[in-house]
Structure formats: C-alpha cells, structure tokens
TrEMBL record:
Organism of origin: Eutrema halophilum (Salt cress)
Keywords in alphabetical order: Hypusine, Initiation factor, Protein biosynthesis
Coiled coil: none
InterPro entries, per database record: IF5A-like (IPR001884), IF5A-like_N (IPR048670), IF5A_C (IPR020189), NA-bd_OB-fold (IPR012340), Rib_uL2_dom2 (IPR014722), Trans_elong_IF5A_hypusine_site (IPR019769), Translation_prot_SH3-like_sf (IPR008991)
Job of this protein: Translation factor that promotes translation elongation and termination, particularly upon ribosome stalling at specific amino acid sequence contexts. Binds between the exit (E) and peptidyl (P) site of the ribosome and promotes rescue of stalled ribosome: specifically required for efficient translation of polyproline-containing peptides as well as other motifs that stall the ribosome. Acts as ribosome quality control (RQC) cofactor by joining the RQC complex to facilitate peptidyl transfer during CAT tailing step.
Name this polypeptide is given: Eukaryotic translation initiation factor 5A
Molecular-function GO term, any one: ribosome binding
Presence of the UniProt keyword Cytoplasm in the record: no
C-alpha cells in the first residue's frame, strides 16, 4: 500500500517506474488487491502486476550519477570521467537514437557533454544528456 504513482517497483524481476495504481475492494475471501501498471526503466516496456495489498513488494534501488563524456569509440562504447578522476569505459551509446545523436554532435563540436547514468539491479544505462558550455 506504500507504492505510489511515480515511484519504483520490481515486476517480473525488472526495475520499473509506476505509472498507474488502482486498488480493488476486498473480496469474499480475502485481501484488497493493488493493480500496478509500470514502465521498465531500461527497456521502456509496459508491465503489469496484481498484488494483494497486504503483501510486500520489492522496490528497486535506483541510482543516478552524472559523468563527463571523454570519448566515443568506433564500436559504440563511451569513455566517461568519474568524480574520482578515473574513467568508466563499460557503457555503450544509448539505444535511444535522439540521445545518441545529441552525445555525438556535442562531442564532435568540442562541447563539454555530461551524461546521466541510471543504475539499478546490476544494470546501467545512459538516460539523459546535457551540453555544458560552448565549443572551441
């Protein structure tokens, strides 16, 4: 009963953002049920689940970190600068073509490009891109 619209929930082992919650009344034999409609935060697929309101649900721990883009390799991997001054080289360009195009154009123009990386349940993905400052 504590999960609200806009919150996060685990459905079928996937971290999701809740877009709709509806509650049914208790039946003759039992519990009120909560019907969740949620969008997978990595694949954007719509998932639904119905859970008795007295039961516990898993809530994913979703983290967002901003990194500066250093390089984009030919095979589609990106090199990012971490806060500690190291590099993070294990992420690919986002599957969202708009985000990937924004990253490439900003990088080619010599702008400082900052990407937001969302991580949850052992998965990471670039979810947002910001250009900071002008080019050369």
């Amino acid at each position: 009963g504590n999960i609200r619209k806009g919150g996060h929930i685990v459905i079928k082992g996937r971290p999701c953002k809740v877009v709709e919650v509806s509650t049914s009344k208790t039946g003759k034999h039992g519990h009120a049920k909560c019907h969740f409609v949620a969008i997978d935060i990595f694949t954007a697929k719509k998932l639904e689940d119905i859970v008795p309101s007295s039961h516990n649900c898993d809530v994913p721990h979703v983290n967002r970190v901003d990194y500066q883009l250093i390089d984009i390799s030919e095979d589609g991997f990106v090199s990012l600068l971490t806060d500690s001054g190291g590099t993070k080289d294990d992420l690919k360009l986002p599957t969202d073509d708009n985000l990937a195009a924004l990253m490439k154009s900003g990088f080619e123009e010599g702008k400082d490009v900052v990407v937001s990386v969302m991580s949850s349940m052992g998965e990471e993905q670039i979810c947002a891109v910001k250009e900071v400052g002008g080019g050369k």
